[in-house]
Amino acid sequence: MTRLSVNINKIATLRNARGGNVPNVVEAAQNIEAFGAEGITVHPRPDERHIRYQDVRDLVNVVQTEFNIEGNPNPEFMELVLQNKPAQVTLVPDAEDVLTSNAGWDTIKHKSFLQEVIQSFKAEGIRTSIFVNPDKKWIEGAKATGTDRIELYTEAFAVGFQHDKNEAIKPYAECAELAHHLGLGINAGHDLSLQNIQFFKQNMPYLDEVSIGHALIAESLYEGLESVIKKYLEFLK
Ligand SMILES: CC(=O)[C@@H](O)[C@H](O)COP(=O)(O)O
Ligand SMILES: NCC(=O)COP(=O)(O)O
Q1: pLDDT tens across 178-235, in order?
Q2: Please, what is the angle between helix 214-235 and helix 9-18, to 10°?
Q3: 12: exposed, middle or buried (C-beta count within 10 Å: 0-12, 13-18, 19+)?
């Protein structure tokens, strides 16, 4: 059984485009849970271009499933997470100006920094996960940081899936075997979609959780458009 955590960044992007509260991020999270998702993920970025720090404060009292906050552990992010105590924090080494997450941790170079940060979250009962590329050296390095889980960065899989899906999954499945052997939990995310998720799940051992946002929200638009347009047409008769 692999948990689905829905990343709601893109719902906040849409809300922020108009400056009001439509769509309502908190209501969306509640609906997503009511529809069966097993977690809500947010990734507040320093410029708050989608999820704002206040959204985290609003969501933490409302989310009934697993609340997962992702981000680069700078002092502001650490304070936000430590004050709100989600079930899980996912550490991502994003530069401030990136369009989206584009790399995993060098878990060897940043070992002592990660050890320190992870220890402060775990001391507050927050499960930790660190975002890594699918390379065995980063998994071994992750083990040494004391993290509970890794999150495998799946962009390379999503791209490779288009050309040779069996080749694309190989490093992920091997890293999952190693992580499990080392006693680490296994999450995965980035560019997973309705197109590639079934193959990913079927070929990934020990997969605890996936977090999916961009494609899932786009797919919800595609699948919802027909029904909404029909409703408008009905009212315009
Ligand atoms: C950590 C990760 O994989 C990202 O997918 C991220 O959570 C998405 O962030 P954006 O929504 O800002 O692209
Ligand atoms: N951790 C990955 C995530 O939350 C969602 O990534 P994406 O589906 O928006 O690419």
Answers
A1: 999 999 999 999 999 999 999 999 999 999 999 999 999 999 999 999 999 999 999 9
A2: 50
A3: buried
- The binding-site residues of ligand 2, defined as CB within 6 angstroms of any ligand atom, are 7, 41, 70, 151, 189-192, 211-215
CA 75 from centroid of its chain's CA atoms? 20
If one counts every other C-beta atom within 10 angstroms of the C-beta of residue 224, the result is 10
CATH match of 3-235 with 2.60.40.1180: no
> Which atom of ligand 2 lies at the shortest distance from residue 10's CA?
9
Domain positions in the chain: 3-235
- Separation CA 202–CA 161 (nearest Å): 14
Stated pTM of the model: 0.97
How far apart are alpha carbons 10 and 38 in whole angstroms? 18
DSSP 31-84: HHHHTT-SEEEE---TT-SSS-HHHHHHHHTT--SEEEEEE---HHHHHHHHHH
